[in-house]
Amino acid sequence: MNMDDDELALSPEETLRLIEQQETATVNRIVPDPVPHYLAWGVAWFVGFGMFFLHHGLSGTPYVEIPIGVVLALLFGLMAMAMLVSAMTTWQLRSPVRGASQERGTMYGMAWGFGFFAMWVIAVRFGPLLPAPERSLLWSSLSMLVVALLYMAGGIILSLRPMFVLGAGLAVLNAVGAAAGPGWHALLMSVGAGGGSIVTALVLRRKRRRLRR
User: Fold this and answer.
1) Beta strands in the chain (DSSP E)
2) How do residues 39-63 score in pLDDT, each as one tens digit?
3) What secondary structure letter does DSSP report for 159?
4) Among 17, 49, 81, 156, which residue's Cβ finds the most Cβ atoms within 10 Å?
5) 4 Cβ contact list (under 8 Å, min separation 6)
6) How big is the chain by its Cα radius of gyration, in Å?
7) pTM for this model (two decimals)
8) Alpha helices (H) along the chain
9) Is residue 2 part of a domain?
10) What residue intervals traverse the membrane (predicted)?
C-alpha cells in the first residue's frame, strides 16, 4: 500500500530530533574521545608525583625511603605511557579529517616530542650543578611547564576550553610548587594536576554520555 507524501512527512519536532541525532553522531565520529587522554595523564601525575611527595616530604624528611632514580623512572615512564595514549587519541583525527585540521594535529603531536627533548637537554645540562632535591625539582617542574604550555596551545588549536583551563591551572600550580620547594611541588602536582585531570575526564565522560542520549 502506497503512503501519501503528507503521511511520510516528519513533524517539526521529529525533524529537529533527527538533525540533533545526526549532529551528535558526526561529532562522535570526527572528534576523538578526550577522556582517555585526561585519565591517562591524571593517573600518571597522581601516582608519579605522589611517589615524589613520599620521597621528599613537606619538610625535607622522606616519608618513605624510595631512591630518587626509581621515582624519576616511574614518573617519566607513566608520562611516556600517557603521551602514547594522547598520540593514539590525536591519530583518530587522521582518518575522518583531512587538510588543515590534520596538519595541525600532526604538528601539535610533534610539539610534544620536541618540547620534552628540549626539557631533557636543559635538565641534563644544569641538573648536576644543583643539590639532589633541587635537581629533582628542576626535572619535574620543567616537565610540567612543557605540559602546561602544550595544554594551553592545544586548547587554542583544537578549540577545547577544558584543555586550555587545565593547562593554565597546571602553569599556576607548577609555579607555586616550584617556589615552595620539592615536597610542596610534588603534592600540588599529585593532588592538583593529577586529581584535576581525572576530574576533567569524569566530567567530559558524563557530557559525552548525555549528548548520546
Assistant:
1) none
2) 999 999 999 999 989 998 888 788 9
3) T
4) 49
5) none
6) 22
7) 0.75
8) 5-8, 12-30, 35-56, 68-91, 100-126, 132-157, 161-180, 182-187, 195-212
9) no
10) 38-58, 64-85, 106-126, 138-158, 186-204
Is 7's pLDDT higher than 50?
A: no
Q: What is the dihedral of CA 132, 138, 139, 141, to 10 degrees?
A: 140
**Count of structural domains, the chain:** 1
Q: How far apart, in Å, are the Cα atoms of 113 and each of 56, 66, 150, 153, 183?
A: 28, 29, 11, 14, 27
CA distance linking residue 165 with residue 155, whole number of Å:
8
Range(s) of the domain holding residue 165? 20-212
Q: What cell does 18 get? A: 533527527
CA separation for the pair 122, 139 (Å, rounded) = 9
**How far is it, in rounded angstroms, from Cα 205 to Cα 86?**
16
Q: How far apart are CA 168 and CA 147, in angstroms?
A: 10
Domain assignment present for residue 191? The answer is yes
Please indicate, yes or no, if residue 3 is contained in any of the structural domains.
Answer: no
**Spatial contact of 90 and 103, defined as CB atoms under 8 Å apart:** no
Nearest to 33 by CA among 114, 99, 90: 90
